Amino acid sequence: MCCRYETVATNEYLWWATDEQMDAVSVMFPKSHGVSRIDDRAVLSAIVQVLRSGVLWRDVPADYRIKWKTVYNRFVRWSQDGVMDATLCALTEPAQDEVRLVVSADDLLRHRSGELWADRGFFPGVMSLA
């Protein structure tokens, strides 16, 4: 199965990582230090949704049930640690006779935060695939 999309009341499609995708990328996430973390699937799915749609972090759809600040902070921390680049390079979905990245370099550069962090050199893997 590819990525899960869910339709919400606003007719917006929300992207959710599949079990296969989470199995592939969960080993890249840093370990929790005593305090249980918020669901990595929901955080990762919200990050991908924001980057793909180009909305502000404050406009993370409420259906993810995560505060926008948590999603943004995790994006920043994972970007600085190199986790986000490796994760985005590993996340693919089938497209007509090919496999494509869930977030392309164009999607990343279209978002203000993505462009800022890409300019600082935090996404060499994604940018090299452009």
TrEMBL record:
<feature type="domain" description="Insertion element IS402-like">
    <location>
        <begin position="18"/>
        <end position="86"/>
    </location>
</feature>
<protein>
    <submittedName>
        <fullName>Transposase</fullName>
    </submittedName>
</protein>
<dbReference type="InterPro" id="IPR025161">
    <property type="entry name" value="IS402-like_dom"/>
</dbReference>
<dbReference type="Pfam" id="PF13340">
    <property type="entry name" value="DUF4096"/>
</dbReference>
<dbReference type="InterPro" id="IPR052909">
    <property type="entry name" value="Transposase_6_like"/>
</dbReference>
